[in-house]
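Two proteins follow. First one:
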Amino acid sequence: MTDSSACILQDLYDSEINFTIITFWDAGFEIKLGDELNGFAATGRVNNFSEAVEWLRIRTLEQYPESGFAKAHRRSP
């Protein structure tokens, strides 16, 4: 069985799409798509790790629709 969260994070990395997941106990997860040097395309906060990974997947599809990541992870309607 493959861990889909790990696959999504690895595919972001392989596609050269930067992201940050910051945790602090009892404060949820802060997520950023992008980096400090080039700026952040999106930022958000969620309650758990699964939501953080799904947030990254959705925002990457929105912000980088022509990326290799988007082509591999776009879901058909």
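Second one, unrelated to the first:
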Amino acid sequence: MVFTAGQIAGILEGEIEGNPEIAVHKLAKIEEGEKGSLTFLANPKYTSYIYTTKASITIVNKDFIPEHGLETTLIKVDDAYESFSKLLEYYNQVKNTKVGLENPVYISESTTYGEDFYLGAFAYLGNNVSIGNGVKIYPNVYVGDNVNIGDNVVILAGAKINSETIIGNNCIIHSGAIIGADGFGFSPNKNGSFKKVPQTGNVVLEDDVDVGAGTTIDRATLGSTILRKGVKLDNQIQIAHNVEIGEHTVIAAQTGIAGSTKIGKHCMIGGQVGIVGHITIGDHVKIQAQSGIGRNVKNGEVLQGSPAINYGDYNKSYVHFKNLPKIVNAINQIEKKD
């Protein structure tokens, strides 16, 4: 797709300094910009690149005043980073205007779908599936029986939505994600073997939830595994059965959350965090990457380490830990003198 500086300025309500007719057809980092590309300058550390970039158009803040000549056409806005993000969102909307059914696909006779629906090749829609308006389901997606999907949902190629799942409006499910797999439930027998416990619940994603590529969200044993409104999950995360995650909580890649744990609102959880089952984590909690959480966490706590402790205490302790060989050596020297 090709856009002129004038069109982009119109979308962003920006001011043009340069050629309004110059066109771009791709995006680039400012240091890698070339003719026909669009870039942006938001971080002052990259200011030097604006004088060398070959990008045709650069989005900048309104208070930016060049110190010498530029080859790039400027579009000045209130917030360059926010405007660039807005432009990316607009680009995705234009790109995702596909409608209609490709072939071959399987659609059960009992499935219903709304207006502006797109279904990619080799997709499967099971019995009694209900799909809202503006939904885009890309190739090789599986949707099991009795799934309910709201409006403006995007399910990218290869995702699996198992039976009974409920997905709200404006959700995005990335490639390879699995929603509604069986929870890890087994009971020990007297002979030392394990018997599978049937997982009869479901998964509920409320509105505006993003699920990253390769992430797995298990169905509940009974009841529901629930991701509340605005939850954002990175790639390759494991959410176990009966977990509940509060509104607008964000979780980075490779985190694992064991069964029946409840996580509050507006939490920020770093990558490779491990959280045990059957605990409660409060609201506005921050957990640093690679931490291990084995206890209940109060509202507003900031944790690091494994097992995790208060973030400030961890940093103080780590200073002593780094110096432990010196401390031990000093103690040995004192003991020798004695």
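SUMMARY FIELD: The chain is about 15% helix and 30% strand. The radius of gyration is 26 Å.
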